[in-house]
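Quiz preparation item.
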């Protein structure tokens, strides 16, 4: 069975997979031809949307099998310091992102103001906060994530925004490219007192163990399979504002590095580089963390429930990580 993929409607990047149209056929075809879906993901700039995958809820082992197509390792959240109430009870490789107990994860705050003057959804940083790529505070960082909608919030709430780092890099001026091509960003785990808000508030950073130290990452990553250059950045909450956000540039929230990060993130999240996904039950999104960043939007958790499943796949971060042990695993 062949795969039918068309350009993603309403976006400047990404693909919509329209066949096979059920999860069992999709996984059978993917396992029979394991290189095709990863190649399609690359062809469509690191983003694939597959609708109607409701069978994955009934058979979560199929979600794991599909994830295994995209890399040599699917992370087991039983083996990390992830809060175990957020881990699927049967498949430890599935992270549950939800406000439904026992997970009980709060939605992000609304932007201030919640809407643009024309009534549209705020997209661009710094009006929109929360832009990140998964687990950039680790070395090596993960390659691919798969995100599946089990219980959606109402339309117009709990969207996920995706920004294309390849297009954002390509549109930079030659002067800016020269400035950042060899620049190193310093990424930090959220909630440890090293983000912009905490540093501006004068909070003392938390003493971190060896597995949670901030990690340095290239600001411009070269995709190991396509050779495409992409911006690789997060914003305030996942960069280190104590010693960074960049190595070798004046640190801190009022330093030269902060000014550069704001300029780059404002550019990275221009609406022309962003796709806004409004979730339906059974939607599956596959995205490449090496080239995309994303952000979640608010939903009214006092009235609505939401449940998403995520897997995280590793295996080919690029030659700059060759031979490295996992920074978050301490012998």
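Solution:
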């Amino acid at each position: 069975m062949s795969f039918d993929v068309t350009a993603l409607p309403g976006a400047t990047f990404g693909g919509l997979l329209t066949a096979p149209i059920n999860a069992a056929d999709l996984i059978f075809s993917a396992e029979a031809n394991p290189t095709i879906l990863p190649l399609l993901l690359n062809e469509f700039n690191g983003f694939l949307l597959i609708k109607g995958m409701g069978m994955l809820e009934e058979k979560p082992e199929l979600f794991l099998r599909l994830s295994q197509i995209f890399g040599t390792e699917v992370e087991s959240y039983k083996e990390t310091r992830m809060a175990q109430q957020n881990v699927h009870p049967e498949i430890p490789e599935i992270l549950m992102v939800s406000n439904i107990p026992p997970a009980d994860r709060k939605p992000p705050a609304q932007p201030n103001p919640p809407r643009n003057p024309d009534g549209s959804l705020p997209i661009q940083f710094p009006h929109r906060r929360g832009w990140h790529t998964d687990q950039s505070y680790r070395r090596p960082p993960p390659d691919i994530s798969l995100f599946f909608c089990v219980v959606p919030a109402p339309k117009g709430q709990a969207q996920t925004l995706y920004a294309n780092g390849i297009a954002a890099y390509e549109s930079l001026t030659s002067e800016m490219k020269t400035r950042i091509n060899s620049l190193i960003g310093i990424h930090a785990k959220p909630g440890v007192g090293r983000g912009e808000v905490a540093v501006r508030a004068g909070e003392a950073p938390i003493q971190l163990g060896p597995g949670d130290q901030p990690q340095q990452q290239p600001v411009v990553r070269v995709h190991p399979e396509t050779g495409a250059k992409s911006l690789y950045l997060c914003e305030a909450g996942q960069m280190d504002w104590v010693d960074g956000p960049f190595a070798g540039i004046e640190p801190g929230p009022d330093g030269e590095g902060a000014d550069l990060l704001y300029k780059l993130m404002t550019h990275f999240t221009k609406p022309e580089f962003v796709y806004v996904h409004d979730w339906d039950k059974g939607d599956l999104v596959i995205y490449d963390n090496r080239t995309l960043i994303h952000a979640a939007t608010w939903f009214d958790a006092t009235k609505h429930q939401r449940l998403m499943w995520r897997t995280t796949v590793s295996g080919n971060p690029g030659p700059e990580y060759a031979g490295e042990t996992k920074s978050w695993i301490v012998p």
